[in-house]
Amino acid sequence: MILAIYGTGGSGREVYEIASAIDPEHERWDRIVFVDDVTDARELYGSEIMPFEELASRFSPEEAEFLVAVGEPSSRELLFNRASERGYGFATIVHPSAFVSPSARLGRGVFVKMQSIISTEAVLEDNVFVQSNALIGHDVRVGRHTQVSAYTHIAGHATLGERCYLGVRASVREECLMGDDVVLAMGAVVMEKRVPSRVLAMGNPAKYVRRKAGSKVFS
Question: What's CA 118's distance to the chain center, in Å?
Answer without folding.
Answer: 14
